[in-house]
Structure formats: C-alpha cells, structure tokens
Design brief:
The complex is a heterodimer. By secondary structure, chain A is α+β, with helices and mostly antiparallel strands. Helix content of chain A is about 15%, strand content about 30%. Chain A has a 5-stranded mixed beta sheet with strand order 4-3-12-7-8. In chain A, a hairpin with a 7-residue loop joins strand 17 and strand 18. Helix content of chain B is about 40%, strand content about 5%. Among the domains of chain B are: about 120 residues, Orthogonal Bundle (Cytochrome Bc1 Complex, Chain D, domain 2); about 110 residues, Cytochrome c-like domain (Cytochrome Bc1 Complex, Chain D, domain 2, Orthogonal Bundle). In chain B, helix 3 packs across helix 6 and helix 13 packs across helix 15. The chains are: A alpha+beta, B mainly alpha.
Amino acid sequence: MTKNSGAGATRRGFLKAGLAAGGALAAGRTASAATSDPAITEIQPWNSESGDPVDFAPYGKPSEYESEAIRRSVPWLTADPISSINFTPLHKLDGTITPNGLCFERHHAGAAHVDPSKHRLMINGLVDKPLVFTMEDLMRFPRENYIYFLECAANSGMEWRGAQLNGCQFTHGMIHNVMYTGVPLRLLLEEAGVKTNGKWLLAEGADASAMTRSIPIEKAMDDCLVAFKMNGEALRVEQGYPLRLVVPGWEGNMWIKWLRRFEVGDQPWQQREETSKYTDLLEDGKARRFTWVMDAKSVITSPSPQAPITHGKGPTIVTGIAWSGRGTVPRVDVTIDGGKNWYKARMAGPSMDKAMHRFYFEFDWDGRPLLLQSRAHDSTGYVQPTKDELRKFRGVNSIYHNNGIQTWYVNEKGEAENVEIS
Amino acid sequence: MSKFLKTTVAASLASAFFSSAVLAEPLGLGRQATDEEVAAWNIDIRPDGQGLPVGRGNVADGEEIFAENCAICHGDFGEGVDRWPVLSGGQGSLTDARPVKTIGSYWPYLSTVYDYIHRAMPFGNARSLSDDEIYAIVAYLLYVNDMVDDDFELSNENFTSIKMPNEPNFFMDDRDTTEVPAFSHDVCMENCKPEVEITKRAAIVDVTPEETAAKAAAQDAKAEESAPAAADGQTTTEAAAEPAATEQATDAPDPELIAKGEKVFKKCKACHQIGEGASNRTGPILTGVVGRPAASVEGFKYSKGMKEMAGEGLIWDEANLDQFLTKPKAFVKKTKMGFAGLKKEGDRAAIIAYLKSVAP
C-alpha cells in the first residue's frame, strides 16, 4: 500500500536544495562550530541518574516536554462547555494516526460515562426479530479493522466569511484518524433480519442528548462498523465508550457515540441533527439536506500559525494532511507563492480508502515571505476547490462542509498567519 | 444513488468471500427484545406522526412550563440568552447576511420539535417532562413563532395537520451533479496567475483564543525542569498533587457522601461550575458557596428576587441551601435558576457536603 518509502526521497530532495543554497548552509555550520554546546559538554541529569521505574505510570503519558500537544477549545463558539467542541492539535502531529487522547471532542450533552455491563444495543423496527445484544454478545461476532478519518461537518465552519482563526488546530482540528475494531453493521442487521421495506436506519446514542441520525440502508449494509476499539484499546469515554457507530467518509455527527439502538424504517426520521442542524443553507434561502459525504480536503499543518518556522532560511519542510470521503487522495499539490506555481507533494505513508493521508514538500527557503497552500486530488478526480470557488455554490451561510483551500502567510521571521488571497 | 448502489454491490461481492465462510446463517447471538424494552427506547417521532404519544397541551400551560424549564437558556419568548439557541422569530431572514434559523423560520417538521424536547431537553435534566407538558411547550413554541393563537391546544390528533412554513425550501444533496463536475478538472501547475494579493487576514479579526492553559502548562514544565527537587528522578507533579489531596481529606467529614454529592452535582453542571478554573456560566460559580452571602459572586447578574433576599441578609448556610434546593422557586421567588429541585433529602445532603468539600 505504501507508495513512498520516504527516506531516499528526502535525502535527494535536500541534496538538491543544499546545492542550491550551499553558501548559506556552510555559513551556518561554521557559526555553530565556534562555541561548544553545553548540551554535549555538560553531563545531563538523565545521563547520570536513574529514570522512572517500570509501573511508574501504569498507563503511559507523553513526555512532560510535550505539554503543548493538547486539545484546545474556542470558548466563544458555544454557550457552554458541555454541549461544545474542542480541536485536535494537528500542528503537533505527524504521520496519519491520531493519538486517542488528542482526538477532538464534540458532545451534545457532555461525555457520558457508560457502564459497559449495563450497556445494550437494540435493533428494532422493520426486522424479523427485534434483538438486544450485550457487549459480550457483540464481541462474539466476526470483527474487522479499518483506519478511517472522522471529520465534523462543521470543520472550518468559522472560516466561511473569511480568515478568522489563527491555527490549523482551530481551522481544521475537528478531524481525527484512528484504527477501529468492530463488527460490520451488516452482520448485526442480518442477525435481526431486515424486512424488504426497511430502507432507512435510525442510530441512537445512550447519552443525555440521545443523539439520533437517519442513515440509508445501503450505507449501513456497505461499510459501517459498530466499533468498540480505537487504535487497539477500548474507545475513549469522549469517543463513545463502550460502543460507537463508524460511518466511513460521512460527516462525523452520524458516527453515533454511546450507541444503544438501531431502528429500521421505511423513511428517514427527520431528527434535529438532520433538519435544524447539519443542513446547508445556501444563498437563495434554500437548504441542502442529507449532505453526508465529506468532500476532499487538505491543510498544511506545518508551518502554520501555531507552528512557525523557527530555524531561518535553508532546508524547510512543508507537511500536511489530506482526506476524502469518496476514496483515497493519491495526489496533493503545494504552492509557496500563493498559487502562481504548484508542485506535486510527496505522499508518505499508507494510502487507504476514506482515511487520512500525509504529504511532505521539502524546499530551500530563501527567507522571503511565503503564501502556502495545499490542494488535494482524490481518487475520483475531484480537486479541492478554492474558498471563492466554493462560495459560488454555497454563499457564506452554510456553516457545514467547508473544504476550501487554506492559505497561510509566512513572514520573513517565519511566523504564519491565516489569510485569504486573490 | 445509482452509482452508490453499484459500489455497494461490488463491495458486498468482495466481502462475501469472508463472510459466507463464517456466517452461512445468523449466529443466534443476542436475544429477542421484549415489547416493554422496545417501548422504553423507541421514542422517536416521525413527520407522519409515527411515535406520537396520546396527549395534549395548550399555549397557556406551555408558557408556564417553558418559563420554569426552558427560559433560563432560551429566554421567556424563545429569543435566546447569551449563545443559547434562539427558538422564535427570524422569519424571512434566511437570505440575509446573518440568517436567524429558528423553529419558525427554519425547522422543516414539527415532529422534530416534539422528538427533540422529549429526548434531550431540558438540558441537563432530559426525560423529565411528561408527554402533556411537551405538547404544551410545543404549542407555546408555535405561538411565539406566530403560527397559532393564544387559545391553541396541540394534541396527537391535530399534530400532523401543522405544516412548517420552511419545509419546501429543503432539497436533497445535489453536490454530485453540481459541485463535483465543476471541481473535477485539470489544474494549472506553472505560471497560473501574474499577481497575488492578501485579501483577508485572521490577525485583524483577532478572535483566536489565548492559549492560557497551554502557556501555564509550559511554564509548569519549565519550573519542573529547574526545580532541584526533580533530581530524585520522580516527576514533581505527583508530589505536588499530594498535599492538596491530603488537605481535602482532612476537611472531609464523609468521603462517601461527598462522592455521592459529586454525582448529584452532574444535574447542576449544565449551568454551574465549581473548583479550580471555574467561571460564571448560566449560573454563578459555586466554589465556596456554603456559608457565603447570597448574590455575592462578582460579575454574575442575579435575579431581582435573589438580590432582594440578599439585601435582607440571606446567607447560604446549610439549612437555607437545603430549603432552596428542595424547590428553588418556592424559596426565592423569580430566581433565574430553572431547576425543579432535589426531592430526596439524601441528595440534598450529599450535594451540600460536596459543595463544602471543594476548597476555594
């Protein structure tokens, strides 16, 4: 699956850059050779004293030097912190897998602490036999493992009217990408026996919002999973422990957490989250509904406002992520001059259906201001639009599904800002 | 949908290999749900009325129930308080620069209003309203949206006859025929435009939150780094946490009661914060509330009624708190607190113990 192994390509890339900028690089080396580095010449405490014993942290945590890699919220966005949202620190991450503790949170009635021994999954409605499963029952069905991105439909929703938040954590952080272990929903539905007029599925959560969404039966039978593990361990409380629905490629709101019930019906239920919310109001006052698929999208995660260039000119890495609800992302283009010229970025890491992809673009920065953008091409041929192209179809009031191209302005000092350009 | 169906067929053919070997027929796992169980959870209501319980409620009753249970966040007439959802008005605003999407101006089906209140409202106390109370609230919401008169009564019988004005303005996702073809094109890679200008800047808008938590954490990490105590090889965070925990323990007469109180406090958390980093939300900060004068949290807008009682010297001692929490509106007339009260004496004792246990 891995198309780019990485190391070789990187070295060659830098070699070229090094030749071009030979003078600057050599100068840098000479300067640093003048004084000796105390990090080397002095004995560090960790070099002399014993470290933590085993079991010091029975569940390990990141290094204390990584305290900046945390979820953050934007308090003014919501009325209160219980029905609210926070954001994945994309600028601190690399690769494609999101660590469980950093996956963004979106709750409608807080993160429910559900006792798995009292958790049940019910299937009722247009089925031959309404069923109830315990968690133990579910563990006896054949399982599968898939990596999928989950993006909130409102990701980048604050940016419709123009550049607003400074940091990809805030502009794009309502996304995560983890490996799910779970039972194909199809197997559970077959166990209950869906009647021929069963065309829709209502999925419902057990939390105090009793979140519900209508899902067409074709999708339910295709690739939906009823998942109990993420990245190998039990789901986190804030991700729906002990059970959540996985709806690959479709908006995150449908991935019901604390999943307790499926009802099979012959029409959609028109629940709050598919009528008053998660519908896309267009300029003419009409609104799209059932906009389930997440369009192809990408963002440069570094440099970005929270991850400035601190090393000065010379070899510089631009990296970011890309994803599409319609398939894979075989190609991402990067520009450093605001779209005058584009380069194909190097895709590195596995390329999987409806999963996050990682791209890199290595270049030799001359220290002049940059206008950075990335542009995803998905496996269907869809190309990520500019924000203005998108606004032609949507206006600025649709809140959801903003997949327009993001621009970062990087100044001479390497500081980055969220901007829009002509 | 046809393209979608094809993919589905292909996908199921591919996976048939795997599943057919394991699952020739159902595994017989799980058990049949009883009628009572299905009835307990099957609470959804559809636009065609499927799921509606037998019941009725009128605008006048709805106004009262709404004032008691909903107005604290949504305002007396559904106008919305702070950033809580606006439920009324906004008709004709959907093409405005700032559309106001309310039940009257946007929601396509009335069934959604009933369904949502029933499953999720009041916020922090879901599933506490009776069927008739919900009918009354829905009737009141129709009234504040100018859709019915003040003598209107809503019931399961006339429910589906009410059509929401904005329903015709919703249409199925058409991106596959509009946006997807427009965006699926060849791209320019070289000399694509002569000039580029910055047109919008986030720095000017300046609404990005200060990263106070992150900054504090970074400072903590630095302090740890330089602290000589760290030389014993243990991180200092654990040690630093210890004295605080001990202190709390000596203050605590009954840890079990406090733990129970913390659980009961979940009912309050929608509006109140307590402890480190707490701020005023819909309700005032409750850190140190036991023993303090009423209406004394700075920066919180108290109700007239609460201020009057504070003027008369009301102190939140345990006895007064107990009375207030039994039935807030009976103790402080016109308090903003839209909480029905804690009927169980044990719950009140537990919550007071918990409130006492959180040191300022």
